[in-house]
Specification:
By secondary structure, the protein is of the alpha/beta class. Helices cover 39% and strands 16% of the residues. The structure holds pyridoxal-5'-phosphate.
């Protein structure tokens, strides 16, 4: 039998160390909310490939759609021999996005979507500057890492990132960054770093992903919309992690009344197949001429077929409603665990739909981040059979990303394992 250790040894000798894994086991197969490693160990998966498999691992309808497309053709390049499924996916995305008169274009990865959203904004405005936020994560390519609002591990060691990018404060009131302070930090950028008339875009995750599942308050998003209108700036919402039902709506920005100019999508759009996209207002999206956008694999036909099936599953199985139900149950269980005296102390518990997280803190009832406790809980959970991920600007957040198709018994099993992890990790931290 192949062991996790033997693969780990081979990996060390073959794979660049820069690509790290959160967990030291190797996947063999997965189905809905369950995953088995090469040694036959079973896990409940509350990470689902970092918010990709909202429709569960290997949803039968998505697998069937991808297999059927494989029997027809796997690649022609849309830029050479175009195909209907790409056009239809654009039609569906335009319809779903809360943007009037929308146009779409497809790529392969989230970072590529972000790169292109900025490029389109620069073309549409004739300006260079971009404002992003502290704690934001937009990817690992050169532009995307520059937009990302955290040095370690995303920028460290790779030198000074691209210029003309400025970071404002993301509002996190319970860590002392109020909406007013966050808005003031944008005004400071306009005063100190770059004139508003030179800013092409403001890019924001309506709910920070890697940054810790903090939701941008509606009044903040409305104020950003106002600033963008006032200064002719393109408002980009990065919904790569928060999209496709994760927060209880198709897009997290729909929880506010704000209409962005551009939305970037990826991850859960195709339930595990690599496709990403940029959807935006026609006047912005058509700023670049023919040939200005694309990529050999962008909108790959197998991934487009999977995306159609994934969107249909989200609609037919009412996964937005399911997301709200799962999130409410998670928050209820977490609040009950938080009240206990004999567990690793939990601070803030938050969730928008099934985008749920909690913070580990120094002491019960306190608010001082304890990042090492988050790592201990994640490690203990893995030992017990639950896959979860740490995140957060302060490093003390644990995020829960159950598939929206998870059976109730697996949801409860996962939450039981989480409770045990919080009990047992406290003992180990204390010891
Ligand atoms: C909000 C957000 N934007 C961009 C990205 C980058 O996506 P990718 O890893 O597919 O390049 C991610 C990935 O986690 C993300 O969460």
């Amino acid at each position: 039998m192949t062991s996790n250790q033997s693969l780990h040894d081979r990996r060390g000798a073959a794979v660049a160390q820069g690509v790290a894994s959160a967990h030291p086991f190797y996947a063999a197969r997965a189905e809905n909310a369950e995953l088995w490693d090469v040694e036959g160990n079973r896990f409940i998966d509350f990470a689902i490939g970092i918010a990709v498999c909202n429709t569960g691992h290997c949803h039968p309808k998505i697998m069937a759609a991808a297999k059927a497309q494989c029997d027809l053709f796997t690649h022609t390049a849309f830029q050479v021999s175009a195909y209907e499924s790409y056009i239809h996916l654009a039609e569906r995305l335009n319809e779903l996005a809360p943007i009037e008169d929308a146009r779409s274009v497809f790529f392969s990865t989230g970072a590529e979507a972000v790169e292109n959203a900025v490029k389109i904004s620069r073309a549409a405005t004739g300006r260079q500057g971009v404002i992003a936020f502290t704690g934001a994560f937009h990817g690992r390519t050169e532009m995307a890492r520059a937009l990302t609002g955290k040095i370690v591990p995303y920028k460290a060691g790779a030198g000074v990132p691209m210029p003309a990018i400025f970071h404002a404060d993301f509002p996190v009131p319970h860590h002392g960054v109020t909406v007013e302070a966050a808005l003031a930090s944008i005004q400071k950028i306009f005063k100190v770093d770059i004139e508003a008339k030179d800013v092409a875009a403001i890019i924001i995750e309506p709910v920070l992903g890697e940054g810790g599942f903090y939701q941008a308050p509606t009044e903040f998003l409305q104020a950003l919309r106002g600033l963008c209108d006032e200064h002719g700036i393109v408002l980009i919402c990065d919904e790569i992690q928060s999209g496709f039902g994760r927060t209880g709506k198709m897009f997290a920005i729909e929880h506010s009344s704000v209409e962005p100019d551009i939305i970037t999508v990826a991850k859960a759009i195709a339930g595990g197949f690599p496709v990403s996209g940029v959807v935006g207002k026609e006047s912005v999206m058509n700023a670049l001429g023919p040939g200005g956008l694309g990529g050999t694999y962008g909108g790959n036909p197998v991934a487009c077929a999977a995306a159609h099936a994934a969107i249909t599953v989200i609609e037919e199985e009412k996964l937005c409603e399911r997301s709200a139900e799962i999130g409410a149950r998670m928050v209820e269980r977490l609040e009950a665990i938080k009240a206990r005296d004999d567990v690793t102390p939990i601070g803030d518990v938050r969730g928008l739909g099934a985008m749920v997280a909690f913070e580990t803190v120094e002491e019960k009832g306190g608010n001082t981040p304890k990042p090492e406790a988050a790592l201990a809980v994640v490690a203990k959970a893995r030992e017990l059979g639950l896959i979860i991920l740490p995140c957060g600007y302060w490093g003390n957040t644990v995020r829960l990303l159950a598939p929206l198709t998870i059976p109730m018994e697996h949801l409860e099993e996962g939450l039981d394992l989480l409770e045990q992890s919080l009990e047992q990790s406290r003992v180990e931290i204390a010891a």
